[in-house]
């Protein structure tokens, strides 16, 4: 029994010693859709940034929880009639939806080589802000811009991430991840209508201390 406790203590000490902390940042290419694709609306560019901890679970496996500020949302285009001095004409408009979250991804990583890994795991998000903007592309004017309406959307966001990464050096690496949304962004979805979910592709850099 003493040997068992001693072995467990040694293993825990090794795990603690092997933990690595770091920072990461990158670009989001996100959209809102009724499934796990990016096809429903045009993609919007945003960013993600935060910190992470990487701890080994074995010789080839590790777990990496992260704390990120991440921007989701979508863009769209439409045509609408506008009254002008020359009469009623159709003009082009663009709309953008901005959803910002504090996200906690928990990635389980398989280290195929010391430098290359594959990963998968859940992402838990809390809504920080939700805003919309409509711009008249013909005139270049912003015709509508909403206040923060985050209380009207689902405050919790759940996604499933899959990705990969490659470390050029022991400290600097390139990361890529796709996060498919699992929860509806709407807090009170009308009965009979389809759920709309956040989906995003992320690419960026990571630095281990």
Automatic annotation (TrEMBL):
It comes from the Bacteria. Keywords: Signal. SUPFAM superfamilies: OMPA-like (SSF56925). Coiled coil: none annotated. Residues 17-185 form the Outer membrane protein beta-barrel domain. Pfam families: OMP_b-brl_2. Residues 1-18 form the signal peptide. This is PorT family protein.
């Amino acid at each position: 029994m003493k040997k068992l406790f001693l072995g467990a203590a040694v293993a825990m000490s090794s795990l603690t010693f092997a933990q690595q902390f770091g920072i990461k940042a990158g670009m989001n290419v996100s959209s809102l859709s009724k499934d796990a694709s990016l096809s429903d609306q045009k993609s919007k560019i945003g960013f993600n940034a935060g910190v992470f901890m990487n701890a080994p679970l074995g010789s080839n496996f590790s777990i990496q929880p992260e704390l990120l500020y991440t921007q989701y949302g979508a863009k769209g285009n439409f045509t609408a009639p506008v009254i002008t001095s020359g009469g009623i004409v159709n003009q082009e408009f663009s709309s953008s939806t901005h959803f910002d979250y504090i996200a906690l991804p928990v990635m389980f990583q398989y280290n195929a080589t010391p430098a290359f890994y594959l990963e998968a795991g859940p992402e838990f998000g809390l809504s920080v802000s939700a805003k919309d903007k409509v711009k008249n592309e013909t005139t270049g004017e912003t015709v509508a811009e909403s206040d923060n309406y985050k209380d009207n959307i689902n405050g919790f966001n759940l996604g499933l991430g899959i990705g990969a990464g490659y470390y050029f050096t022991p400290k600097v690496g390139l990361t890529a991840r796709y996060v498919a949304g699992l929860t509806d962004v709407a807090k009170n979805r009308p009965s009979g209508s389809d759920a709309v979910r956040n989906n995003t592709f992320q690419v960026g850099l990571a630095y281990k201390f």
